[in-house]
């Protein structure tokens, strides 16, 4: 019995050391039987040697105190087996018996949080092992699913006491694949919150999990009191490229600004400066006389000149001589329009308007013509 306990203690110590680097599950070292626990967390495969016998481990079963612990045994139909559950103090907590391929179940109500070991025994030899953590802390991790090789992995770890008291002795983040296993201690940043970073990861796919450690030690290694569910991480160079717009535009703002500015430069600006500005200049100084305004506005807009002439021509024959005089004055104005229209080759000519300095001369000429006409008729 002493030898058996010594072997169990050595096994738990070896598994505790491995668990500190990665979570575990048992993989059969014997062809005649195997042991597994549903819901175990996958981890890197490790080989543990105990007194000359090698056992492969690659995941860990995690249970809350009081949760049932089912164990599936696969063996030949006539093979009798026994599954023992040992604690870290080299004591056997319970045993279950069966034959062939069968599921047995352990009760965990009386188990304290800590690291335990399931051992499958056939014909007085242990042929399979499987680590179990009765959790004292609920552990969760939050991290990116993908990063680039030059980026740093930032992980937030939440630790909540369930069956344990106070904060854990330590929290570690584990990032691993078949070639690499990295352990990073996490720093507490708030009540129940820890942060850990991992840098210089090579391209590849990794598994990520965190562990919470208790105060009890086995040969200098802290006992495992909590393990998070496993997560995944992909480290790869980004291959995404900008997607061009559906309309074929390259997305630059220059094209839009050019398209908008061309119509303004080619048409609107010239029209405003050649027409509207000069029309305003020609019209405002002549507000003193309606007849004078009509005369000056006529060259600017041919339509307006025609309207003025039409209204004058359509008047009754009994209209005053002043109206007839106005019509007579409009005629030379049309001649002026024809003259202006023929000055297209002159780069200094305006659009169709009369220069401001000519306004007083025209007004004076109109007055003289009107007076002369009246004197002649009389």
Automatic annotation (TrEMBL):
Region (Disordered): 231-354
Superkingdom, natural source: Archaea
Compositionally biased tracts (Low complexity): 317-328
Regions of compositional bias (Acidic residues) in chain numbering: 244-316, 337-347
Protein name in UniProt: MSCRAMM family adhesin SdrC
Biological source species: Natribaculum luteum
Lineage: Archaea, Methanobacteriati, Methanobacteriota, Stenosarchaea group, Halobacteria
